Structures are given as C-alpha cells and as structure tokens.
From TrEMBL:
This is Transcription initiation factor TFIID subunit 1-a-like. GO terms for biological process: RNA polymerase II preinitiation complex assembly. It comes from Trifolium medium. Keywords: Bromodomain, Initiation factor, Protein biosynthesis. GO terms for cellular component: transcription factor TFIID complex. Residues 1-43 form the Bromo domain. GO terms for molecular function: histone acetyltransferase activity; RNA polymerase II general transcription initiation factor activity; TBP-class protein binding; translation initiation factor activity. Signal peptide: none annotated. The keyword Secreted does not apply.
Amino acid sequence: MDLSRIRERVRNMEYKSREDFRHDVWQITFNAHKYNDGRNPGIPPVADMLLEYCDSLLNENDENLTAAEAGIETKDF
C-alpha cells in the first residue's frame, strides 16, 4: 500500500467506510516499520505522524463521515 494507491481508491470511491481508509493508512505505517526500522530509521516516525494526522482528521470530521457512510450503505450518494 502507498499514498498513490490510497488516492486512486479515494478517486474511484472504493472506500465504503472510514475503517477501510484508516486500515490502508495503517498498512503504510506497518510497512514503514517492518521494512525501514533498521535501514532507514527516519521513515517510521514520519509514517507514525501520518497515521496520527489521519486519526485526527477522522475524529475532526466524524459527523460528516457518519453521514457519508450512511449514504453509502443506502446508496444515497
């Protein structure tokens, strides 16, 4: 998973919930730690900040996201 793939999924309206979106951002963070902890120690902290920022924006926009997810479930979008 990478940011360009997330952008593509957003543009194609492939996400059905914020959990799906967050999972992909989490996957980037997980991979950053798995593949870079020893070799590129500066990358994992940046990935952690990305996930924290994602969580912050998801919390900040909770009301709008809840309404959007309800529209997806009823196909009223």
